[in-house]
Every structure is written in structure tokens, then in C-alpha cells.
Design goal:
The protein is mostly beta strands. About 5% of the residues lie in helices and about 45% in strands. Strands 2, 4, 5, 6, 9, 10 and 11 form a seven-stranded mixed sheet that branches. A hairpin with a 4-residue loop joins strand 7 and strand 8. The radius of gyration is 13 Å and the shape is globular.
């Protein structure tokens, strides 16, 4: 059983930075894909970034150049460094793990395909 726990959320002003962490109870080194999603009340869950064992990390256009996804296998931890935050980044952020499919934009666009989820951490960006 895999448990994921997010941390690092908070409130910042526009232009500020936050680093989110996702700590896993089981090994993540062999996972096919790890990712970050975000969701605003009454909106669909949106894929933000994903990282796999091969290839370059995937990012949605709105965060490209501002967010960086990375992982530390020794610590079983996934990170999302967020720079130059904007009010539109305000959301609950979730980390996720996919065990069967390789990372791709298609996978990032389909939250239902992911196997494990954390409970989320709130990020609020003020103008």
C-alpha cells in the first residue's frame, strides 16, 4: 500500500516562491510516473507537472519556466519548486503516482489513470 503526503503549502504574495514536498511510504524509484495536480473548487483537477524514469519532465504551458518537478529516491520524496507565483496558481495541490503507464502529456491530462493520491496541500497567492 502506497501513501502519499503533501506538505509545504501556504500563503504568499504574487511573485513569491514555495516548494511543495510529497513523501511516500513506499519506494518511488521504480514508479512509472510521478506528478503534481491542482484543483480549484468547482473546477476540474488539472495536471501541472510529471516526471518519469526517462525523458524530460512534462509541464503545462502556464507553469513552464516557473515550476520545477524533481524527486529524491533515497528520501522517497517528490518536489515541486514554484517560482514567480501568480494569483491564478491558487489551488489545492495533489501529488500522485502512476504504476502502469509511462509519463506523457496524455497521462497528465487524465487524472483518472493515476493509481495513488495524496490528500492535498493548499497554495494561496495574493495580488
Amino acid at each position: 500500500v502506497q501513501n502519499l503526503v503533501e506538505s509545504g503549502g501556504g500563503s504568499v504574495q504574487s511573485g513569491g516562491s514555495l516548494t511543495l514536498s510529497c513523501t511516500a511510504s513506499a519506494d518511488i524509484a521504480s514508479s512509472r510516473c510521478l506528478g503534481w495536480f491542482r484543483q480549484v473548487v468547482d473546477q476540474e483537477r488539472e495536471g501541472v507537472a510529471a516526471i518519469g524514469r526517462v525523458g524530460s519532465p512534462k509541464y503545462i504551458d502556464s507553469v513552464k519556466g516557473r515550476f520545477t518537478i524533481s524527486q529524491d529516491n533515497a528520501k522517497n520524496t517528490l518536489y515541486l519548486q514554484m517560482n514567480n507565483l501568480k494569483p491564478e496558481d491558487t489551488a489545492t495541490y495533489f501529488c500522485a503516482q502512476e504504476d502502469e503507464w509511462s509519463c506523457s502529456f496524455l497521462l497528465l491530462e487524465n487524472p483518472s489513470r493515476w493509481d495513488h493520491w495524496g490528500q492535498g496541500t493548499q497554495v494561496t497567492v495574493s495580488s
